[in-house]
Amino acid sequence: MFDPQELAKTLGSLQEKLKEAQEENKNLTFNAKSGGGLVSISANGEGEIIDVSIDDSLLEDKESLQILLMSAFNDIVKSIDTNRKNMAMGMLGNLGDFPFKGI
Q1: Among the four residues 4, 9, 19, 83, which has the most C-beta atoms within 10 Å?
Q2: pLDDT on residue 50
Q3: Which helix (H) or strand (E) is 23 found in, with range?
Q4: b/e sequence 25-48, b meaning 16+ C-beta within 10 Å
């Protein structure tokens, strides 16, 4: 049977877990490299870029620098997106505990 109080309790618990996961996410660091390490980018779990490193040899080759920057940025965006999806799937895994039995 559906119990609204159990639902509220479960939702509150999920909300707390989401807050905890978001805090943990802030402390994560993702790194991406391109060109064999000539360009490297670091970002936190919220997607904020926290560091960019460019090898001096690329400063004279604008086209290569642009290509390597795009590659590294795309890689870091994919890593952050994958992390967010995994976090969401972990949260959704808890939906099986919802008190909807009997509806």
Answers
A1: 83
A2: 95
A3: helix 4-26
A4: beeeebebbbbeebbbbbbebeee
What's the pLDDT tens digit per position in 62-71? 999 999 999 9
Residue 77 region by backbone torsions, left for phi larger than 0, else alpha for psi between -120 and 50, else beta: alpha
Tokens representing 48? Answer: 């904020």
Residues β-bridged to residue 29: 44
- Residue corresponding to tokens 């505990």: 97
Angle at 81 (CA atoms; ends 75, 86), nearest 5 degrees? 125
Q: Tens digits of per-residue pLDDT, 7-63?
A: 777 777 777 877 887 788 888 999 999 999 999 999 998 899 999 999 999 999 999
Question: Side-chain half-sphere of 69: how many Cα atoms within 13 Å?
Answer: 14
Alpha helices in 27-103 (DSSP H): 62-93
Compute, in degrees rounded to 10, the torsion defined by CA atoms 90, 73, 40, 64: 160
